[in-house]
Amino acid sequence: MVPSMSIAIDGPAGAGKSTVARELARRLGFLYIDTGAMYRAITLKALRRGLNLADEESLKALANQSRIELTTDPDRLTRVFLDGEDVTRAIREPEVSRHVSLVARLPGVREIMVRRQREMARCKNVVMDGRDVGTVVLPDAKLKIFLTASPEARARRRQLDLQAQGHHVPLDSLIQEIAERDRQDSCRSVAPLIPAPDAWIIDSSHLSAEQVVEMIAARVLGRSS
Ligand code: CDP
Ligand code: CDP
Q1: What is the pLDDT of residues 174-197, one digit of tens each?
Q2: What sequence ranges are listed for the domain AAA+ ATPase (predicted)?
Q3: Cβ(60) to ligand 1 under 6 A?
Q4: What is the predicted ipTM?
Q5: Residue 165 C-alpha to ligand 2 middle, in angstroms?
Q6: How many domains are there within the chain?
Q7: Which residue range is the domain that position 38 belongs to?
Q8: Is 84 labeled as ligand-binding?
Q9: 14 Cβ closer than 6 Å to some ligand 2 atom
C-alpha cells in the first residue's frame, strides 16, 4: 500500500458520499472522516444555546471551544461525540439539516474545521468526505471524487432512509429541501461546492452504492499495486 494516501469524496446531499466513503475506507483499511458531521455538531450546539447563526464571532468562539471526535466502531457505525456526548443521532435531526448550511458558510468556522480536518488526516491513510475536501482541505489528495446524482434520486434515497426510521416525508418536500441546501452550498463565497479540476465525476443516479465502491476501489488498487 502507498504510504499516507488520501481519498477525497465531495458532492451534494444524498449523493451517497458517506455510504461509499465508509465502505471504501473499510475495504482499504483507511480511516474514514465525515467532515459534514463536524459542521452538524457545531450547528447542534449553536441551536441548543439559541445563538444567532449569523453572528460569526459567537459561532467561531463556539467552534474553538468545542471538542468533536469521530469514531468508527467494529460494526462500521460512525459515532460522533461533541464535548464527550454521543450526538450521532441528534446531528441528523431535520432541525440541524435545515440550519447547517448557515453555519458552514461562515469563513471563521470553516477555518477552524479545516485546520482540524487536516490534523486528523496527517500521516494517515484517509477517506474524507464533504463539500470542499478535494478543493480546500486536502488539495493534494491522491484521488478526488465528485459524487453526484439527480435531485430526484437523492431525495428518493433520503425518503427511503427516513422511512426506515419510521418517518414518512413527501418526496416533493425532500426535493425542495435538498435543492435549497445545494443552492446554499454551491453559491457561498467561501469553499463552494464545486468539483476540483482534477476530480473524477461519478453520477450515481443509476448505480448502487456497492457499484460505486467497486469502481473506486478498482481504481485505487490498480494504481497502488
Ligand atoms: O449528509 P449530507 O450530505 O446531508 O450532509 P453532510 O455531509 O452531513 O453536510 C452537512 C452540511 O455541512 C452541508 O450541507 C454543508 O453545508 C456543510 N459542509 C460543508 O460546508 N463542508 C464540508 N466539507 C462538509 C459539510
Ligand atoms: O453522504 P450523502 O448525503 O452524500 O449520502 P448518504 O448519507 O450516504 O446517503 C445515501 C443513501 O442512499 C444511503 O441510504 C445509501 O444506501 C443510498 N444509496 C447510495 O448511497 N448510493 C447509491 N448509489 C444508491 C443509494
Answers
A1: 999 899 889 988 898 888 899 999
A2: 3-124
A3: no
A4: 0.97
A5: 15
A6: 1
A7: 6-224
A8: no
A9: yes
